[in-house]
What we know:
The protein is of the alpha/beta class. Helices cover about 40% and strands about 10% of the residues. The protein has twelve helices and eight strands. It is globular.
Amino acid sequence: MPFDSSADAPTQQSRLRLVYPLMALVAASALSACGGGDSASTLESASADVAAATSAENEFESAQASGRWSSRPRPPTRPSKPAPSPAPAPAPAPAPSPSPAPAPAPSPAPAPPAGAGRAVPMPMYGVTVDDVSSLAAITESLSRLSRMPTTRIVFDEYQPASDYRKAAVAINKVSYVMGEILDSQYLTTVNVQGYLDRTREYLAALGDVVDIWEIANEINGEWLGNNADVVAKMSGAYDIAKGQGRTTALTLYYNQDCWSKRSNEMFTWAQANIPERMKQGLDYVLVSYYEEDCNNLKPDWNAVFKRLETMFPNSRLGFGEVGTSKAADKAAYLQRYYALKPPVAKWAGGHFWWYFKQDMVPYTKPLWNTLNQAFANTP
């Protein structure tokens, strides 16, 4: 996703994570001074919380310093968990009565079948949906396009897969579906085991309505955390998906002359860190690129994709994210990128305009017509 240099929300969250443990430590110190409770264990626990929060604070500040926080609009109506109901007042104990026979337990719902989703025709006519509220308007906008689109659903951090079941089923009826396990901005919110557990959860819950699984996003970005963990998350998710016969996609981040560390340059990182089994076995290798994030550079895409074709000889190649936040540039930018067709044997297209929900829903917005015409003009 695109940059956001402000980093206000993550910074505020990290400050709160530090304040609460500090308050706990002060309270524990006071308790210890009064001789109350298990003072030693209380102080030790509170000190550990402060240390953990300080580590999280440092991680957020490091991410902020790198300038890597997304400018994507936060979902304005992200569903919130309902507050728990208050406990009822205790009722008088009833007279004892014979216990009724227990009802038979319902049979568990069958798990969605393992295996690949629908075969998506090439090229893909891609859009990205980063917020599934206003679902009826989204599906109407998709259904009216001149080509059957492939919709990339961004699965938000901390959300269970069940939250996306309704949306994925509805979108599947009017579009092919690509599911993004977790956006790169939030990869550091889970450890390796957490990422693999999340992958299994989403594949189990949505495997029958998602056709392509984006097992890792912008995977060479400097903001993704410890490199060994990044590689373990990427390769582990790939192995889980492939082990179930799923169709896999990996999105790289193109950063010619705009990387912070040379080792994270796209080709350098991919050559050093993507295992050979993935180089030979990935179904799709896609590129995320935002010109405004990279000195407004317009790369030689023919040369870029020819190099990728050599590194990933069996993969379909295309764009996994494009877009601009500059309203005046959107139409021309969209037309230019969707018209690209580098001379590679397995060109997949895609493009997956990041701002589909903001720019093309409802379908009466002017940019919907621009996108529709771009689809129609693509052979």
